[in-house]
Amino acid sequence: MSSKCMLYAEDKSDDNSFNDQSNFVFWQKIENRLSKVMTMIKETIESQGYDWDTFLKEARETPEEVFNYTSKQRLLDFCGKKYSMIVKKLMDDYSQYFEVKASVLSPGINFSRPSAAISELQFSEAIEVVQWYKFFITAKLKRAIDGLHDDWSLKEFPIQNDANGTAKIALIAVDRSLVAWRTLYDLLPEMANEIIEALRLLSKIREELLEQFSDLNKFIRPGFDDHHPV
After folding, report:
1. How far is Cα 91 from Cα 198, in angstroms, rounded to an integer?
2. Is the pLDDT of residue 88 over 50?
3. What's the chain look like in SS3?
4. What is the C-alpha separation between 162 and 157, in angstroms, rounded?
């Protein structure tokens, strides 16, 4: 069995412990998986007649391509980076407070404001969503913007290109983060100013995404959007 097939078989057989990122088994499997992925890549490179050491040397010496962003693209990139910094600082500064808050909140929260009824996220879940996407959004924004400078891809695949696909994923992350922050806004009125700043940045990012990637919602994610057009 090839390393690729073995990797797939492991994916199908993983138990629930793999999804628990605080579990030692999770990190052990990640380490083992990374090693096997690198073996698979090495096998693929050598099967095509390339020397692995030469390949690594050339990869290290290849300079990262720098694109000349437009002013709008720079704005979107800046908002993404600023959002990540703000969220990281909030999560670091209030980590202990959030732990205390989570322990006193009832598992089933009845939101008093009608506007919060769109979400049934519990406090801890909202924090997890914010944490999960705080750097994810920034990374996806950069990749999407870089994709706008891939002339060949944009010409050959006007809709199904990496720029639109990545922008769509970024938009999903932004929308989920907006819901999470809106939940926290209802639960943490004492942090209204900080939360409003995060909401403001996310709203601006969302606005710029829809403007600069006007076809992103036409992009079809295989296995996700095939039967559920946006």
Report:
1. 12
2. yes
3. CCHHHHHHHHHHHCCHHHHCCCCHHHHHHHHHHHHHHHHHHHHHHHHCCCCHHHHHHHHHHCCCCCCCCCHHHHHHHHHHHHHHHHHHHHHHHCHHHHHHHHHHCCCCCCCCCHHHHHCCCCHHHHHHHHHHHCCHHHHHHHHHHHHCCCHHHHHHCCCCCHHHHHHHHHHHHHHHHHHHHHHHHHHCHHHHHHHHHHHHHHHHHHHHHHHHCCCHHHCCCCCCCCCCCC
4. 9
Predicted pLDDT at 8: 43
What per-residue confidence (pLDDT) applies to 161?
95
d(CA 112, CA 192): 16
Handedness of CA 40, 41, 42, 47 (dihedral sign): positive
pLDDT at 98 over 60: yes
pLDDT digit string (tens) for 161-217?
999 999 999 999 999 999 999 999 988 899 999 999 999 999 999 999 999 999 999
Between CA 120 and CA 131 the distance in angstroms is 18
* Cα 160 from Cα 225, distance rounded (Å): 12
- Average pLDDT over the chain, rounded to an integer: 80
End-to-end Cα distance, the chain? 39
89 token code pair: 């600082």
pLDDT (0 to 100) of residue 120? 41
Cα–Cα distance for residue pair 169/179, rounded to 1 Å: 16
